[in-house]
Q: What sequence folds into this?
């Protein structure tokens, strides 16, 4: 399967959620909640209007006043002695009840600030003030005033009852002045995110010419080593600049310690690293099962500290990925997840439900329908991560020597599909022999034209699949090769060799 790395350059984007636009101001023709009138009610009901008020029922707050429980009864809207006969065309409550619904807020009608179809992913958020609309503010004000009136009435009645029964015993019960405690048990997404985010960084890599992009990494040890993808920092390898920013806003310059293009793994080290670094706990990717919960952390489209969730959709998925720059591809026997992964998630941790790192988010299967924003593809639920068991071995080698070490069989295979397996080529790179003289494949009796169909119990359907499967092993591991020659299936055991560096 061929995919695209999802950490290519992206336009600048905010690293924090946008500040919400203030709600529309209260309409000028509606009274504010604290502006309730205090004038006395008229002694008789006012002459009803010829038609129902525009705002519907209840009447505007300006026509109401706090109720005096000791005042003489006044005519009210439901006093039959003061109301026109039922069915009269001058009744203040007619077919206009119930009142029309409040106008739709501007943010719900696709207007400015709603992020219409023309908005580009990763662009700075900028919302225009929502237009003021009539009706909604008045309704709210009326409700508030009514509540105040009801509160005054209740207080007066309570005072009267207490006065009439002041010789009875009473008990005062105080309500709690704090909300209920919120706990997030271990294993919940919120708990895992809270523990993992402080050890996850957003990486900015820039070449000497100014090219670069955004990716993610995570703390590997207390010495300041950060693990990420090779394609995240590749632009900064030769004279470029790398920075790492933690969720608390602290930013550090960093240097590339080592990078492995074939594995798509790199290690950077923070300059002047803090002494309180907390490395993420590494899990065991061999024990992961399909259906296990996953949590991905990264900076999709530059939105730092983003958390998404999903499950393990498949294991040992052969993936050949490229960042589209024309460089050689990377090969992996990947963990597949449906957790949302987008450009900028590259290099970030894929966690299990306990918060252990089980993979490094590295590639996505992009849709042929086109991308988001500046032509970049987004998540369609097919993300791929380098298993952490492999990434851990590679990172340790890079920290130790600065160069990757690859396992090999000592034979060149065709990358074409439809061969029914990994076919050993007729010639190797640069016209050399396809089967290395004295190498593992030669010692096992393999020849040009043989088609490798299995490595141990793993089915091999193409050259990239074989490469990815070999690289899950370490040099010196013994494996069993199943191959066909002349239509007959044969097996051979061999000990994997080693190759240092990407050349």
A:
């Amino acid at each position: 399967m061929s995919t695209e790395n999802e950490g290519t350059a992206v336009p600048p984007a905010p690293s924090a959620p946008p500040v919400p636009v203030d709600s529309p101001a209260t309409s000028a023709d509606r009274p504010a909640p604290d502006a309730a009138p205090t004038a006395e009610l008229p002694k008789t009901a006012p002459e009803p209007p010829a038609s129902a008020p525009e705002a519907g029922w209840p009447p505007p707050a300006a026509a109401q006043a706090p109720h005096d429980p000791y005042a003489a009864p006044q005519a009210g809207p439901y006093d039959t002695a003061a109301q026109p006969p039922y069915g009269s065309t001058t009744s203040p409550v007619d077919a206009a009840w119930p009142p029309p619904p409040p106008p739709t807020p501007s943010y719900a009608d696709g207007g400015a600030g709603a992020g219409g179809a023309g908005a580009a992913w990763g662009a700075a958020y900028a919302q225009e003030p929502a237009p003021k609309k009539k009706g909604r503010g008045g309704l709210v004000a009326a409700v508030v005033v009514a509540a105040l009136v009801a509160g005054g009435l209740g207080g007066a009645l309570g005072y009267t009852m207490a006065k009439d029964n002041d010789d009875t015993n009473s008990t005062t019960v105080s309500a709690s002045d704090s909300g209920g405690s919120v706990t997030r048990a271990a294993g919940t997404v919120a708990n895992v995110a809270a523990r993992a985010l402080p050890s996850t960084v957003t990486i900015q890599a820039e070449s000497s010419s100014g090219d670069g992009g955004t990716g993610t990494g995570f703390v590997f040890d207390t010495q300041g080593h950060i693990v990420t993808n090779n394609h995240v920092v590749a632009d900064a390898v030769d004279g470029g600049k790398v920075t790492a920013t933690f969720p608390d806003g602290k930013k550090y310059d960093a240097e590339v310690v080592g990078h492995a293009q074939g594995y798509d793994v790199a290690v950077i080290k923070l300059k002047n690293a803090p002494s309180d670094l907390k490395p993420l706990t590494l899990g065991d990717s061999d024990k992961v099962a399909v259906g296990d919960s996953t949590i991905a952390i990264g900076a999709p489209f530059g939105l730092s500290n983003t958390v998404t969730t999903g499950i393990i959709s498949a294991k040992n998925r052969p993936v050949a990925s490229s960042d589209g720059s024309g460089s050689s591809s990377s090969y992996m026997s990947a963990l597949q997840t449906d957790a949302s992964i987008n450009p900028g998630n590259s290099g970030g941790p894929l966690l299990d439900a306990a918060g252990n790192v089980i993979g490094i988010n590295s590639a996505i299967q992009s849709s042929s329908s086109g991308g988001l924003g500046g032509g970049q593809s987004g998540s369609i639920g097919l993300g791929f991560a380098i298993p952490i068991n492999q990434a851990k071995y590679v990172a340790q080698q890079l920290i130790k020597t600065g160069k990757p070490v690859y396992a090999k069989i000592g034979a060149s295979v065709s990358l074409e599909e439809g061969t029914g397996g990994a076919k050993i080529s007729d010639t190797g790179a640069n016209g050399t022999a396809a089967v290395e003289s004295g190498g593992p494949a030669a010692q096992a009796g393999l020849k040009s034209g043989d088609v490798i169909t299995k490595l141990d119990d793993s089915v091999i359907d193409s050259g990239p699949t074989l490469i990815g499967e070999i690289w899950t092993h370490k040099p010196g591991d013994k494996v069993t090769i199943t191959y066909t020659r002349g239509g007959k299936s044969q097996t051979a055991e061999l000990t994997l060799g080693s190759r240092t560096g990407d050349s």
